[in-house]
Amino acid sequence: MQTTLQADRVNYGQHEAALQAYMREGEARAMRLGNRGPIRRDSSGGIHPDILEAYWRHGFYVFEGVLQADELADIEVDVEEILSRLPVSRDSDVDALGRPALGADCEAPTLFWAKPLGDPFGGTDLAAKRHPVKMIEPEAAPDAPEEVVYLILGSLQFSEACLRVYGHPDLLAVAAAINGHDFVPFNEALFLKEPGRGASVAWHQDGVTHWDSPNWDEGSHGFNFMAQLYGCTAANGVWVLPGSHKLGKLDIGSLIDDTGSDRIRGAVPILCGPGDVAMTNRQVVHGSFANTSEDWRVTVNFGFHRRASVLGVTTGGLHNAVAHYDEARIQTRSRLIGYAIDARRQRFPDETPYVYKPLAEAGERCRWTAEAKAGIRDYNLLDLGL
Description:
Jelly Rolls
């Protein structure tokens, strides 16, 4: 299997021209798929079946206009604060002003670094070797730092605005429609694609646990929501291979060999405006290119699983240490959903809050207070990765 695209073989001028053509063609295909629009309900109040059919057919859906201007402003304030509190370097515990840096007191993994326009996972053994082929790495500007933060895990402990997105009633209703009313959390993250510096994410399929299960199907490894602060384009957004979530574990190296580049044939970009939220099946082949554009991408990322996929499983990986997922762990981790619902209720009192049945049926009422906020530090040690 090919594991890297050798830099000394790449003519970057030709590569950029081919990439731009690939992006234009992908954009046109993406807009013809018919898998985008607002979150719609049917006559009984459930998520409209046309949305569910399009999601299961393609492996992704773009919900337009989910987050309004006031909520986007809240997120932007929090993101600016987060950026100001990042360590000055990978090994530093202080930010640029000498204050304790974001995540410095956390035991759980939080900050992930990469060289500007680099590919930290492709062609390596990291993340259970899910990223078999290294992406082409353009040369960053001479004034770029040695490394940038491109991913923040456990993001809900750093941003109440992101926590409130996590409790959005329409998005949680979608999660229930896809994974059942007893759906459970996966993990949460903040993706940062800085203009001219943002790292690529090599082509991969998420999930390592259920590929060989006799009960495997197209939804076995759950899905992710990707809420966009500024929107995303073909240049800085995620690309997916439609329908690939139905095909089992694919040979991504062969898909790359088929084109002789890091551009997989038939893939399309997820195109979003500010406030749009994409839903992506974790089994779909997906990745993103280094962000050589002039546009930021800030993605509030969070995912959910079927309870049946998680309960009784012993696993681990990128997102958490090996552990057994019993009822107690699932219930404890699910309290973040309750906190998110209550935090959102406090900020948007005119909304009808979502009722998360596993907590309601257990008689748990999760209140978002200063004490609760202090208590969620390192909550991602209990992530439910599959």
